[in-house]
Design the sequence.
């Protein structure tokens, strides 16, 4: 059988800051993140299966990532646990959606975090192949199964 | 010598329907399909060759795929042989350009179909590396030589 | 006060056919339609208003057009009433989502149709300024309030 | 003489929060803002002028907006003066680049703010025609000279 | 009747140089020019007309501009008559496609040149509304009927 | 540790001509080249390192390629040493920025040239993975470490 990769695109609007960094990104700022998730598998070859001809239904792949990543990180602020994040709690409603994470929230580390989330959610027979995250229109980080 | 990948982009406007499917795609609807075809080879290193420095002339790769895929599937309707396609014949001129195919016309299966067409048309020394088909701006399927 | 235009983008996947036409579009085919809706008004200047600083909440403009246009025309087939559309009824489930319209479904006429739908749905103080519909990446039709 | 519009594109990465708002945007979050600035004038028709054939040198229009808007708002956090912004001061280095503004930082109000900045900086004979700001890929606000 | 704008997109690959200019553009260099041509008119409302529902057939608008502009300027070099262009003649086959024009080939002047060409070619009832030319992804010049 | 790919995007405006070629590209013409450079490595996992969480600082990758490729090839003319390039010298200021290269300047050969430049400039622990160059919006050439 033929192996085929299937990719879905997502975006979300998030703020972050890099703690103890020496560039502009040390300040609270934000991005329109663009996320591409690619899985690989064999298209179902069974004309009685409602998903005949699909590796995974695009709408299933859409909801897995939407529920566990996009809806959680969209319109939120992500900050490293080592940063003075407790002071942020006083901001009340401006700080209602935030993530204190145990890694510096660079584009690279966010990709690894997303890979770990997605991998546990895929149905049998479908493997994660690639996750690519654009922080800006010209900068991206990417995890690929063949590298790891 | 160095191996280089060469990619051309194509698009075409096509309708389809997924027979015996449980989502919106069971209805006749359409997409502006985007197709990327990537081949791999060594650039010609011969200054007397008119194609010096090329793996394949972009315009040759363009016409191979345009003649055999784009010009045939553009402005057409693709339907699975198991669907009630004979009733469509009564639509006369609205059904002048159609393809009854022996596979469910998902994005995945269309990619495999295109791979088989293109592979037989490439000149010696040029190998098919990747075919990627976007059904919508956020959904794509992709065949890669390294997976198969 | 300053007048500001606010634009939202939508897309939907639709098939159509142009009846009694002399080009490729006479066949059933489809497009990934891209729709831009622009309204104009004065941003609310009242710090007690939850919508302070907005002409219209982006999410309100999003749902008006999503409910009345995108969700209805997405994954559907649009056909002119003068075409032999009754024969399509025999396609059963492939024809579950369709629109028999009293106009040739060109990009121009679809725009006019959408303008009439949207205009009746806008809240007071917000006027429709522009509706632009892309049939393909290189072809669009556009209604503008200043032309009419 | 012919009047011609000249447009430059800019982008910047900014966080904001909408104070006293009832949607997701009340939280600190961010966007990759895309900004289009359009000016209008007559191209210089003087072959001894180094800027012959230009309304304004693209690189001059680029630096005016880069210096006064992009370089200031990029990698910063913008917040309304009525929000509890003083508590943010304790964030120290994460809060080194911020703007406390006297308006709710909606896309609409940011456009008006940018219009006021740019208008004062244009050389004689060149008028501001349009400023369009994308907050996300699908949402934008726009000021146009003909509306005001 | 309703007035509708219809836009087609074109691109072409051209080199130019700005004579007697004080920036980088004085050197021979090139761009992937993107051209948008917008016309305005009333869609034909006559069900016996093959072009029913159209302001102008997209494919007619495509060929007018393709024949008279794209096919002539694509893969060519444009230079001002006051530049030392006669020395270029010695380049023989590298200089087979060139245009010596009586204006500095800035983006603004090219737009005016294209406006004059297109205006004379439109069928009755169809008026030129807007011509926009991108020299780079971030720089464009635009002629609009309402400004002139 | 996890290997992550990091990609930066660049563009530049360049003219070229293919000597002794049988297509349109034999003429002096130009393109808005788009360049994607991808490196691979392990994100630094050391909270005392200012670059914690990064494979390479995006701004470092940006400046390496900008200094050695973009700033040199932007607004220049590239020509094969076998072409009659000496005649070009008489063009004086129009020929101030040019590159006489010892290869036919096809998209494929330019990619190989850029690969050789970039490889020597990367810091330890960071390897070049992929270089992709778009000559036009629909044509690209690409070097990948896994192919060579």
Sequence:
């Amino acid at each position: 059988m033929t192996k085929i990769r299937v990719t879905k695109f997502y975006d979300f609007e998030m703020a972050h800051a890099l703690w103890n960094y020496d560039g502009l990104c040390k300040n609270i700022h934000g991005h329109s993140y663009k996320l591409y998730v690619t899985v690989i598998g064999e298209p179902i070859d069974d004309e009685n299966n409602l998903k005949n001809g699909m590796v995974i239904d695009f709408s299933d792949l859409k909801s897995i990532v939407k529920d566990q990543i996009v809806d959680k990180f969209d319109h939120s602020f992500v900050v490293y646990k080592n940063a003075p994040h407790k002071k942020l709690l006083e901001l009340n409603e401006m700080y209602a959606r935030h993530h204190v994470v145990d890694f510096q929230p660079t584009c690279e580390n966010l990709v690894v975090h997303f890979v770990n989330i997605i991998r546990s959610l895929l149905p049998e027979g479908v493997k994660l192949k690639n996750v690519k995250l654009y922080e800006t229109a010209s900068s991206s980080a990417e995890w690929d199964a063949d590298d790891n």
